[in-house]
Amino acid sequence: MLAAQQICAWSQGTWMAFHADIVIEELIIDSRKINEPETALFIALKAPRRDGHSFIASAYDKGVRNFLVQEEINTSDYPGANFILVKDTLKALQLFVAQYRKQFSIPVIGITGSNGKTVVKEWLFQLLSNSFSIARSPKSYNSQIGVPLSVWLLEPENELGIFEAGISQPGEMENLERIIKPDIGIFTNIGEAHSEGFMNLRQKINEKLILFRNAKQLIYCSDHPELNEAMAQYIHQIKGNGSEPDLQLFTWSQKHEADLRITRLEQIDSKTKIEGQYQGVDLAITIPFTDPASVENAIHCWCTLLLLKVPQQEIEKQMEQLHTVAMRLELRHGINDSTLINDTYNSDLTSLYIALDYLEQQKQHNHRTVILSDMLQIGKPDMLLYEEVAEAIARRNIQRFIGIGPALYKSKSLFRAHKKLRSIFFKSTEEFIKKLHLVDFDKDAILLKGARSFRFEKVSILLEQEVHQTVLSIDLSAMMNNLNVFRTRVAPGVKVMAMVKAFSYGSGSYEVAYALQYAGVDYLTVAYTDEGIALRKAGISLPIMVMSPDSGSFDRMIAWKLEPEIFNLRSLELFTRMAQTMQVKEYPIHIKLDTGMHRLGFMVHELPDLFTELAQNEHVKVASVFSHLAGSEDAGLDEFTRQQAAAFRSMSDSLTLQLGYKPYLHLCNSAGIARHPELHFDMVRLGLGLYGVDGSGVLHDELIQVGTLKTTIAQIKELDPGETVGYNRRGKVDHPMRIATISIGYADGYPRALGNGTAHVLIHDKPAKLVGVVCMDMCMVDVTGIPEAKEGDEVIVFGRELPLTQLSQWADTIPYEMMTGISQRVKRVYVNEG
Ligand SMILES: *Cc1c(COP(=O)(O)O)cnc(C)c1O
């Protein structure tokens, strides 16, 4: 919280318009995510492809009245608003938050390193939130923008701050240090990640060490030789200045003497017991994880707790309860056509706001419900805490609130004060479960958010729709990554049309379309009218092009604002007639030209008739003119591609000339975008690449496969030599074999061509080859070499470690066919960063 006047002064700004001094509570950089507009400051950041200044109007419309800008604004367009003008809005944000930080004298922990920053931060929060009122970075907010937004969350009642810092090039840590000013530092580890900007490892370490310039204590693992050496030199350097260093090192090691000497790691089932010596005393903790990264992260936390003098007994108790940090929120199909956002491990204001934003994005539902347990937010009296929660929920488009737990039960009246919000309360999770059948959930978007002790996973089982064992998991964050990979390849101003035809290449319908709309693509394209109508019904408002509209659906297209691809005179005449009947004018249409693909489209000799038909036609307006490349991915066809492009140029030029206005021109699909940067025209049509499959052969390192197809082991059998497996005895057993039957078959879209040893699946990250033929609903795999495999285990059919391109090669087809062939009975589950 800071007065606007103070922000203006501290950011070295001037008032472009000043109306009233307001206490700012929230900083906003995205006009779609606003909690309390009246007390928010909108910071217009300027990024290469996204200029915050162009969202000022939208933030103003939502009620925001305070703006930090770096460009002249016509402030008379925004009556009643304050505008602070600075040279650089990002620098200004960093400046005033650094000043803000100075007001707090509580201990602050700063975390950097190549891996584990977010997990260590979240775990420290889990471990310490019983003992301290904590402010921490939301999600992985560790960048030049994320750090000031995190530190801003410090409030007077806090007793501890935990913030992470990440850098990608030299010079960046200086800024972050000034803002975080950590007292206690944690250097998690050093790896090769993000080393592009650095000359070598040492330079990278030294840059990161800048974060601890003013720290009193620094925790790190002295088993990393490079890190250890750099640290020794760093201390030496400080000592060189003559004074004793203020910075004390707190080391841990599995190999040699250290402050915390790790003496033994023992794996017991799914847990690890970690034994160590600290100040001459033998200590131990047990964590519910076995992987090396979790062990390393836990030891860093252990050191921190020892430094903070948390009693060993409390440390042990909390360590046993550590739980996985959900980096992303999972969207599942709920009962009665509901959507369920499952966030059942965390319950504090920071994570609640993230989840509420995500709930609000579920525009496919008109009704939204929040189910919340009592919160673990110490430091704030219940009254103030729940008043804030009630307001945050009432302010959003949320219709129903279900509060569970004694504290919420007592705070009923705070929620009931908001008349439009229906609220129901239960004293315990058990009571809620008993009465669950009385609460109706129907086409609802449900956020389930509870502290761990409330055991909401029991509720989530009841609210989740039962799923067939085989699921296709769609990672929407990966899709956003892929979108950005392509966006950086097209010039600013070139529009992006995203192809969501064929059920988004098999990935789902409105979930994908909605994520793309939210990400700001310019156009969507479907194959058929009904696909477009389904998107409109789900609340998609972007322009939608329909590639194969049949004339019988023209009336519905117009009613639902869907734009037809017009590829011959007949469809143009029929569409014009319908537009006339429905009395619409200048309805957007898209003219398809045939430049060599010879599928759909006007040929050169048909252009004169097209001109005649379009001239004086007041019912339609050509929104775009396009053509499709036959071999954009194939270097052997580049000459043909150039011929197509030349034909496209000449045909579209004469069309534009005739029209007297300029429609958008577009030619490139995914591979075309990557391989033919000179052919982007006004818009590109992005399909396959969006789903993380590289058809171009030049992008594979950057794209992330969006889909993971998983199933489970239904049964395991031990077979003797001489026996056979499956239909027609095609699977031969020549040595003692362990065979797993898995729940996927050709009816799910798993091609028969993959049988008899052609393909493998992954079980416990290890390959298991197919034995015998693929059946309709099942197939059999060899798990002789995977003794840990057991019934019920997860099987990866394809995913990042077993790419679709590999499967499609095995099946002698292309990824497009594999993806769109996954049958509709396979449930789609969506994951996303909150
Ligand atoms: C499907 C399609 C695309 C997208 O192609 P990708 O190779 O998947 O990127 C582009 N344009 C048209 C006309 C299409 O039919």
From TrEMBL:
Keywords: ATP-binding, Cell cycle, Cell division, Cell shape, Cell wall biogenesis/degradation, Cytoplasm, Isomerase, Ligase, Nucleotide-binding, Peptidoglycan synthesis, Pyridoxal phosphate. GO terms for molecular function: alanine racemase activity; ATP binding; pyridoxal phosphate binding; UDP-N-acetylmuramoyl-tripeptide-D-alanyl-D-alanine ligase activity. Signal peptide: none annotated. It catalyses: L-alanine = D-alanine. Substrate binds at R599, M776. Residues 706-831 form the Alanine racemase C-terminal domain. GO terms for biological process: cell division; cell wall organization; D-alanine biosynthetic process; peptidoglycan biosynthetic process; regulation of cell shape. SUPFAM superfamilies: Alanine racemase C-terminal domain-like, MurD-like peptide ligases, catalytic domain, MurD-like peptide ligases, peptide-binding domain, MurE/MurF N-terminal domain, PLP-binding barrel. Pathway: Amino-acid biosynthesis; D-alanine biosynthesis; D-alanine from L-alanine: step 1/1. It comes from the Bacteria. The modification N6-(pyridoxal phosphate)lysine is found at K501. Gene3D superfamilies: Alanine racemase, Lyase, Ornithine Decarboxylase, Chain A, domain 1, Mur ligase, C-terminal domain, Mur-like, catalytic domain, MurE/MurF, N-terminal domain. The active site is at K501, Y727. Its cofactor is pyridoxal 5'-phosphate. InterPro entries: Ala_racemase, Ala_racemase/Decarboxylase_C, Ala_racemase_C, Ala_racemase_N, Mur-like_cat_sf, Mur_ligase_C_dom_sf, Mur_ligase_cen, MurCDEF_CellWall_CoF430Synth. Its EC number is 5.1.1.1. It is an enzyme of class 5 (isomerase). Catalyzes the interconversion of L-alanine and D-alanine. May also act on other amino acids. Belongs to the alanine racemase family. This is Alanine racemase. It comes from Taibaiella soli.
